[in-house]
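Sample 3 of the quickstart, ligand octanoyl-coenzyme A:
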Amino acid sequence: MSEFTLPRGIVISGTGLWEPDGQISNEELVDAYNRHVDLFNERHAQEIEAGTVAAKPKSSAEFIEKASGIKNRFVITREGILDPERMRPVLPERPDDELSVQAEMALNAAREAMAAANKTAADIDMVICACSSHQRSYPAIAIEVQSALGIDGFGFDMQVACSSATFALQRAVDAIAGGSARTVLLVHPELASPQVDFTDRDSHFIFGDIAIASIVERRETCTTDTAWEVLDARAKTVFSNNIRSNFGFTSNAADVDPFGPGKTFRQNGRKVFKEVCPMAAAHLEQQAAAVGAAPTDIRRWWLHQANINMNGLIAKKLMGNDFAPERAPVVLDRYANTGCAGSVIAFHQNNRDLAVGDKGVICSFGAGYSIGSLALEKVAI
Ligand code: CO8
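Result:
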C-alpha cells in the first residue's frame, strides 16, 4: 500500500460530466444480441448439429439487471451496435487536423469542470488525461486537450484501467504539493464501446461511454464557496489476469487479429467479485482510520461503479446491513460500468447536499487489480 502524509490545503474545486447523445437500454441491447444469436445458430446449424460448433445461448435483460444492477448505458453512437450483422459501433476515422473523438469528449467535460471551479485556461498549468484506453499512443490526448483549451503548461496520458481517475487525482495532489503544478485539469474520456465484444453474452452489457473531468488546486487559489479538501490518498495494485485485454500494436507482428476472439475485454467476473470485495473493504476501513474516523462516520462512499451487488457488499461491511442507500450512491443503473469515471460521476452527482465538515471517500477498484482512494472533507473557502 502506498501511503503518504499529505500536506493539507489541496482541494477538488469543480467537476464536469458529459453524456453522449446515444443511449441503449438492456432490452434493446438484448434484442440485438439475440437476433445476432439466431443468425449465428442458423448459419452454423450443421456444425452445431455435428457438435463441432457450440450453439450460442441467448442473453436476458432480467439477468443483466439482477446480476449487475445495470439498466442502461450511454454510447458515443448507437449506429452499428444494434445491427446483428455488425455488432460494433460505426465511428469513422477523423482527419489529423480534426479534434479526435476522445479529446472532444474530454473537452465537453473539461469546460463544465472549469466553469464549476471558476477557472480559465490561464489558471491551469497541467492536464492529465487518465482513462482505461486511449485511442492512440501519441501525441497524447492530454496535449490535444491542452492545446484546444489554450493552456500554457504540460499534459500527459496515463492508464490504470478502472483506477485511472483516482490514481490521476493522486498525481495531481502530488504535483501541487511538490510544486510542479499550480492548478490541474483532469479529464477521463472513457470510450469503451469500440472495444466491447457485443457478440459475447458474458460481457456485452457491461460498459458505457462517458466523460468526466475535475479541477484540483490549492485552497488559496480556490474561488468557489465550498470545495473538497483531500485528507488522505492511497493506492494499491496486485497483479491479476482475471480482467484482461490483449489487443495492441504488437498484434501487427504476431499475425493475429488484434480484435479477434478473446482479444478485447474479458474477465472472470465471479473471481473478481470474490477477490476484490474484501480487498476494497479492508482498504477503505484503513483509510477511514487514517483520517480518524470510523467507517460509519464517513457520510458518503463514492464507490467504483461495476456491479451493484459488489457495492452493496462493501457498503454493508463498512456501515452494517441496514445502511441508507444514499450513503453509497449508485449511478451504474443509468451509465453502466464507465471504467475509471464511475466513482467520480457518483461524487459529481452526490456531493452538493453534504455540509461543511462532512467527510466522504472516492474509491475505485478493478483491473490490475488496482484500488485507488481519496478521503475528502467539505470545506468552506
Ligand atoms: N444473459 C443471461 N444469462 C447469462 C448472461 C446473460 N447476458 N451472462 C451470463 N449468464 C448466465 C451464465 O452463463 C451462468 O449460467 P450457468 O449458471 O448456467 O453457468 C449464469 O448466468 C451466472 O453467470 P455468472 O456466474 O457469470 O454471473 P454473475 O452473477 O457472476 O454475474 C457479472 C456476472 C455481472 C459479470 C459479475 O460477476 C460481476 O459484475 N462481477 C464483478 C466484475 C467486476 O467488477 N469487474 C470489473 C471489470 S471493469 C474494469 O476493471 C475496468 C476494465 C477496463 C474497462 C475497459 C472498457 C472496455
